[in-house]
Amino acid sequence: MSSILSALTLTSSPISSPTISPQATPSPIQNETLEEQEYLDEATLAKLKMHSDIEYAPPLSPITHNDNDIRDEL
Fold first, then answer.
1. How many whole angstroms separate alpha carbon 67 and alpha carbon 74?
2. Residue ranges of the domains in the chain?
3. What distance separates the 2 farthest-apart alpha carbons in the chain?
4. What is the 3-state secondary structure (H, E, C) of 6-69?
5. Whole-model pTM?
6. Which of 1, 22, 44, 66 is surrounded by the most beta carbons within 10 Å?
7. Buried-state track 31-51, b at ≥16 Cβ within 10 A, e below 16
8. What's the CA angle centered on 26, arms 35 and 32, to 5 degrees?
9. What is the pLDDT, as a whole number, of residue 46?
């Protein structure tokens, strides 16, 4: 185990390195669940309504159908 740790220590970059890890920058495209996206849409719509006189706004996320619903329609 100590040989693995020493090997990792020797090959790792120093802490003061200016490199940025890929995990440090959030991706602009995130995979939210449908429930999370609906919540975010509602929260965004609520903020918009607070700052302006919006009577109606279309859904922000695309409308998705359950596979079973599509089969029933066919």
1. 11
2. 32-74
3. 66
4. HHHHHHCCCCCCCCCCHHHCCCCCCCCCHHHHHHHHHHHHHHHHHHCCCCCCCCCCCCCCCHHH
5. 0.30
6. 44
7. eeeeeebeeeeeeebeeeeee
8. 10
9. 84
Residue in this structure with the two tokens 């185990």, named with its chain if needed:
1
Which tokens sit at 53? 């006189």
Q: Kindly report, residue by residue over 3-62, the tens digit of the pLDDT.
A: 555 555 555 455 555 555 555 555 556 677 888 888 888 888 888 777 776 566 666 666
**Residue 61 contacts residue 37 (beta carbons within 8 Å):** yes
Nearest to 39, CA basis, from 63, 61, 13, 7 = 61
Are 41 and 60 contacting, i.e. CB atoms less than 8 angstroms apart? Answer: yes
Residue with tokens 């090997």: 7
